[in-house]
Design a protein that fits this description.
76% helix; 311 residues; single chain; mainly alpha
């Protein structure tokens, strides 16, 4: 997810070579995780079902849709459509499993119900804009509305203390708003909507982007006031919202014809790229220390072996 959205952002600001490198990395990781996901489903069904009940399982949907969106921007519409079909097939199964096990005071991963839904909306809208069928644009609108409704449902179950003590996934609270704004921008750019409908979509997108900026500021302030310098693999769940907010600003600026949004979008994107580089570097260093200490990757599972589709 994080690498895929960074690739999308770099494409939007014209750094195509860097974007394609990030796309290649994201595709390779996605393929590895897809194989792992399938093997576990076939060979260890109880464990697969146990993990499917938790919010991080929805990263399978979001990561697939984000990768599909980048392929669509590259012009590879058939491949993007296949990924949309795959993500759409997984989405209701995993969404139902996750919502069924919701509880009070959950970490930031609770917002993945919104992220996964809006990721589908973004990809469907992108394919509609690419001429793959108006019905995809209408489906994207339904998903967008559902994703917006899922946000407050997740918010009331979010443990707000995570803003001050979370290990990284608290940023998904802002990323969910960012991807909602991105979905709104794709719908705003669609010729399917005109008049009042277009005005409502444009307004909703700008409101969502404003809320994403506000969440970004609050979460960044909390990081400064209460630094958490230790490494945790959940920091990948920080990189994705950083990149998503930047991409939402860039896309909204074009769709809503507000050129002033390009500068903050570019600044936030380079912040996300820097965060991605640092997270990769620390991850490699931590893994290296673990291998050196034990000869077999002795870093604790709680720090390294968590759902990695966020990368």
């Amino acid at each position: 997810m994080a690498t895929g959205i960074v690739s999308v952002g770099l494409h939007l600001i014209g750094h195509e070579t860097l974007s394609r490198i990030a796309l290649a990395l994201a595709s390779a990781v996605w393929l590895l995780l897809a194989v792992r996901f399938t093997v576990r489903f076939l060979r260890d069904r109880p464990r697969w079902e146990a993990e499917a009940d938790t919010p991080p399982a929805l990263t399978a949907v979001a990561a697939t849709a984000v990768l599909g969106t980048r392929l669509s921007l590259l012009g590879w519409q058939p491949a993007a459509a296949v990924l949309l079909a795959l993500a759409a097939a997984l989405w209701p199964v995993l969404l139902y499993a996750v919502v069924r096990h919701w509880r009070r005071r959950m970490p930031g991963g609770v917002f993945l119900v919104c992220v996964a839904t809006q990721a589908l909306a973004v990809l469907a809208a992108n394919l509609a804009l690419a001429g793959r069928g108006d019905w995809l644009g209408r489906a994207a609108l339904v998903l967008f509305c559902l994703g917006v409704l899922l946000y407050p449902a997740a918010l009331v179950r979010f443990d707000v203390r995570q803003v001050w003590k979370g290990a990284g996934d608290q940023w998904i609270a802002g990323g969910a708003l960012g991807i909602s704004a991105l979905a709104g921008s794709k719908l705003t750019a669609s010729p399917l909507w005109s008049g009042t409908a277009h005005h409502v979509l444009r307004t909703a997108t700008l409101v969502l982007l404003g809320l994403a900026f506000a969440a970004y500021a609050i979460l960044l302030t909390a990081e400064v006031v209460r630094p958490r310098p230790h490494y945790d693999v959940r920091r990948w769940a920080t990189v994705f919202p950083l990149g998503m907010t930047a991409v939402a600003a860039l896309s909204t600026g074009v769709a809503a014809r507000i050129g002033a949004l390009r500068t903050p979008g570019e600044v936030l994107l380079w912040v996300a790229v820097a965060a991605w580089v640092v997270t990769v570097g620390v991850f490699v260093a931590v893994r290296g220390v673990g291998v050196g200490a034990t000869g077999r990757g002795g870093v604790s599972r709680s720090r390294v072996r968590t759902p990695t589709s966020r990368r």
